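Field: sequence (string)
Field: structure_tokens (string)

Example rows 1 and 2, in order.
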Amino acid sequence: MRSLNLPQWARPAWTRLAAVGLAAACVMAAPAHAQDDKMQPVPIPAQPNAIDLGTGPLPGATAPESWHRQYGSLFARNVTVATLTPFLPDPAKATGAAVIVTPGGGFRTLSMDNEGYDVARALADKGVAAFVIKYRLNQTPADMAGFERSMAEMFSATAARPPRPSPQAAIAGLAPQLADSRAAFALVRKRAAEWHVDPDRIGMLGFSAGAMLTLATTLAGEDAKPAFIGLIYGPLAPVTVPADAPPMFVALAADDPFFANSGFGLIDSWKAAKRPVEFHLYEQGGHGFGMYPKTTTSTGWFDAYVRWLGMHGLLKRAH
């Protein structure tokens, strides 16, 4: 495996991001008109098209998967078995391109609607096959009250900050998620003919923690090898860029409280390596805007992303 040379964010900063990531997905992302801000537990929805990725149950997990609704959107947590849900385009408009959609939520929860299903439906409407990965998560208390308390404790200014581990420990910390990501690519390539997907045109699009997983999957240099990547409000720390790094699309709001004030080293890294990169810095939008309709120009990120796909020939039917 290629040395990851992962930046500081990839060291279980997700222990810290578990707190800020949930706020990102649940608070900063809320549409301006939303009134239903309280987390409401809901039964696990039927997911008839979800396919078990075969990576097995999360080691040591004791809390079962559960879902809740907030701001009109569904969130999953305590995911212990990874799945992939296909959203296939009308065959008449299918281009052969595909995207593995990777929701965020601080590795403690997944924004399944705003950063998953809604994105996948929009891509399928453009002729791009989309696959929402529900990857395994770090465990949280099983009951909602305990979950909310645990998040409040992490937000507390007195919460202890963990020591910085070595890069090797960081890689081990992402092992379940990276295994899920690699399995997702393997599954889509295995069933490419059935799903009318070009196995050489499978990309990955991630949001917040999902953007971290997207970048880590790209830098790992193993069998996943996304053909193109999109990072939506993820960290922008510099990295060592592989010589064969794929084209990268990045979108971030200038008022993002987590990732807008640490420079744009990732963009500089891609440029220095002479790899294709497009960067949209929106004046407003906060963190976690996703597919929520907002009055800020950040709402236009999806249209810009689709134009970028078209510029790279990914909206043309493969022959």
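Row 2 begins here:
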Amino acid sequence: MRILCLALSITLLAGCTSGPRIDDRYTAIGQNSRVQYIVLHYTSTDLPRSLRLLTGEEVSSHYLIGDAPPTIYRLVDENRRAWHVGDSQWQGRTWLNGTSIGIELVNQGYYEGPAGRYWQPYAPAQIDALIELLEDIVRRHQLPPGSILGHSDVAPQRKVDPGPLFPWKRLADAGLLPWPDAQAVAQQQALFAKSLPTVAWFQQQLQRQGYRVPEHGELDEATRNVLAAFQMKYRQARYDGEPDAETAALLMVLGGPAR
């Protein structure tokens, strides 16, 4: 009898601690993934220190991809928020930790040398692993083109990663993001060389892309930083933040959703 009472008590306690009973027979059509973006970073350090930093209390990322060998580490479940992007904005959405997946690539970033700033190239096998991971994430979350961003896109006033040596074109060739047609860019560049648009035009076009940019029509430091972030992605040979005919042509050809 005592054993029966004990078993009954355990059963009742288990029922009390299991939470409410949920009926899952119905599913709403009107829904989508909480994930709207994927944000790419470099770690600025080697693999051992990257793992220590990203598994600590202050900063984290959903995935970390090593460089040699290019192992993919899952550090945070995709259903949970990682602390990888901080103060950020894209397409009017702010503080993107809650709506993005963060991927860190082991890469030293840059250092200042006698000849200027030196950037570390990315290992081809590391980018192969990244593309495979991105294809899987994009498929599972049904993300539209343009959802893969750099940290420098969403925080251009304070971040430059993944840097000017990140091979965005390889991602475009894999069908993961839009890329401007070279012939169309050349045609537009010839037109803009005759008459360059105003700074206000550049600000409007950058905003259409998704960037947070001033709208006052002045070429201030904040606007230059956003221009440099755009150029670092689509015109990596020169990312000086200067509004010029080629940058205008790239913006025109890429277009962007009106908001």
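free_text_note (row 2): The mean pLDDT is 92.
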